[in-house]
Specification:
Elements: H1 7-14, E1 16-22, E2 25-31, E3 34-39, E4 42-49, H2 54-61, E5 64-69, H3 75-81, H4 91-95, E6 99-102, E7 106-109, E8 114-125, H5 133-139, E9 147-156
Antiparallel strand pairs: 1-2, 1-5, 3-4, 4-9, 5-8, 6-7, 8-9
The structure holds flavin mononucleotide (FMN).
Flavin mononucleotide is lined by residues 15, 27, 29-33, 48-50, 53-55, 79, 82-87, 146.
């Protein structure tokens, strides 16, 4: 596995799609918070998904997820997938991205330039009382805090 990137800007500037479920029943959403590193001697990717997101249900129900990265030309698709909910519409069809089956039960996108295949190894809802007050007021005044999912990166495509 090999992936060279500027990790500090990858999520923040390029954004990504996190996707869970299989090709017959999956959901996807845009993220710009996340990271990559090492935990328990494994390569890991961490994503943060609020419980109100439809994607959260799929993250909870599945043992694996993918994180896909796209070039600038797909910015509008990522905006759409980060503003509409899969609860309300077929937003993937509206985005004109092409979902593709990966392995047995995973979904990525044909247009992604890089896809991380992750196996969930740790899940925890962030503790609102432990985050800085300004962050709490800005992000968690009305909605429950993000759930943190740490996935072992088992493949890079
Ligand atoms: C640029 C961008 C970054 C986002 N990053 C996150 C994130 O890291 N975590 C999160 O929970 N929501 C994030 N969102 C919001 C979700 O993508 C958005 O609520 C989406 O519509 C949820 O879709 P769903 O209900 O189909 O899961 C982001 C949205 C945008 C546009």
């Amino acid at each position: 596995m090999n992936f060279t990137t500027d990790i500090l800007t990858l999520f923040d500037r390029k954004w990504a799609l996190v996707t869970a479920g299989d090709i017959s029943d999956f959901n996807t959403m845009t993220i710009s918070w996340g990271g990559m590193g090492t935990l328990w001697s494994k390569p890991v990717a961490t994503v943060y998904v609020k419980p109100v997101r439809y994607t959260h249900e799929f993250m909870e129900a599945n043992d694996y997820f993918t994180v896909s990265f796209f070039e600038e030309e797909y910015r509008e698709a990522l905006k759409l997938l980060g503003s509409k909910s899969g609860r309300d519409c077929d937003k993937v069809a509206e985005s004109h991205l092409t979902p593709v089956r990966i392995g047995e039960n995973l979904v990525g996108y044909v247009q992604a330039f890089r896809t991380l295949v992750c196996r969930k190894i740790y899940t925890q809802e962030l503790d609102a009382s432990a985050v800085p007050e300004a962050v709490r007021e800005t992000y968690y005044a009305k909605e429950a805090p993000h759930t943190m999912y740490i996935g072992e990166i088992i493949g890079i495509g």
